[in-house]
Amino acid sequence: AQEEAQRQAQEAAQAKEQQRLDAERARLEEERLAAERAEQQRL
Questions:
Q1: What is this structure's pTM?
Q2: Which of 3, 9, 26, 34 has the fewest beta carbons closer than 10 A?
Q3: CA atoms within 13 Å, Cβ hemisphere of 40
């Protein structure tokens, strides 16, 4: 059961990391879109 607990902990850590990466990517995309909108408003 020890390995099982370690495996579950590792999977949970990977899922958490994936969520963090997804959130980071979404934030960057949001900033990029905001920059594009600001650029268009200046024209």
A1: 0.69
A2: 3
A3: 6
Cα separations (Å) of 22 from 1, 18, 25, 40? 31, 6, 5, 27
Buried b (16+ CB within 10 A) or exposed e, 14-40: eeeeeeeeeeeeeeeeeeeeeeeeeee
3-state DSSP assignment of residue 1: coil
- Residue 2's SS3 state is helix
- CA nearest neighbour of 4 among 12, 17, 16, 14: 12
